[in-house]
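--- STAGE predict ---
source: upstream dedup step, 1 unique chain passed
mode: sequence only
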Amino acid sequence: MAHHRAPDSKREQFRRYLEKTGVVDSLTSVLVALYELPEKPSNSLEFVKEHLNSVGQTLAESEALQQEVIELRQRCARLVEENKELKSRLQPNEPEDKSSNDK
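--- STAGE serialize ---
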């Protein structure tokens, strides 16, 4: 009987750990959100993954991150264009045969 108690004790400790660290609350909130959706997603695992990543973030934090992504994408696009322009401006100045310069 003592053998049976040890796993229960470990299981109970693990359950308390999950509750204490907020894992149970996070999982519960994501599963409730999934349950309350009028149309269930075709890939529920992806839904859970995406929403677990955002648990604990406030709406303001989430919106700020989304805005930052938009700004960084715009900056990246500008830098790509600038890079193309600079390459095209440098191209006429480059020697025809680069291997002859290595000698």
